[in-house]
Amino acid sequence: MSFLSVFRTASRAVRPASVVRAPFVRSRVQTPVTLAAARTANFGTTRMLRSGHEDETYEEFSARFEKEFDGVQDVFELQRNLNNCFAYDLVPSVEVLTAALKAARRVNDFPTAVRVFEGIKAKVENQEQYKQYLDQLDGLRQELGVALREELYPQEE
């Protein structure tokens, strides 16, 4: 007997029982019952994640974001709150935008203050609504020294 045949025989005797596999039998046809059970098991195990603001009114939304903008301490937090605020299917109220502009001034972030007005322009349905927002925020805009993009780059329109 050669050395390799002795080694193979010796190694077979040392294998643990967990390594030995049972023969795999694959059925060629699956019944519709097992297919349906497999499908429901795949979709039934995931959980729906919710934000917790499903039944929030517009006034509660405005109050929540006013409070969040009043507590802003840095640029990252300001931009994160603005992204969250503008992610909804509504245009934020003038009070929320006032708090956002004051927060931008507090953290000394001029570009974000200009982008607040760009966000308003993108969210409103028509130019008349944008003009109404500009009229209501004009005093604060002049006080804080925030220029509009249209004023900064008039040729890009």
CATH class of the domain at 58-151: Mainly Alpha
Share of residues in strands: under 5%
The overall average pLDDT, rounded, is 81
**CATH architecture heading of the domain at 58-151:** Alpha Horseshoe
Largest sheet: none
Task: Write up this protein.
One of its GO terms (molecular function) is metal ion binding. It comes from Penicillium oxalicum (strain 114-2 / CGMCC 5302). Residues 123-150 form a coiled coil. Pathway: Energy metabolism; oxidative phosphorylation. Belongs to the cytochrome c oxidase subunit 5A family. With 157 residues, the protein is mainly alpha-helical. The protein has a domain at 58-151: Cytochrome c oxidase, subunit Va/VI (Serine Threonine Protein Phosphatase 5, Tetratricopeptide repeat, Alpha Horseshoe). Helix content is 63%, strand content 0%. It has eight helices and no strands. α4 (75-86) runs parallel beside α6, α5 packs antiparallel against α6 and α5 (94-106) packs parallel to α7. The longest helix has 18 residues, at 127-144. It is elongated. The termini are far apart.
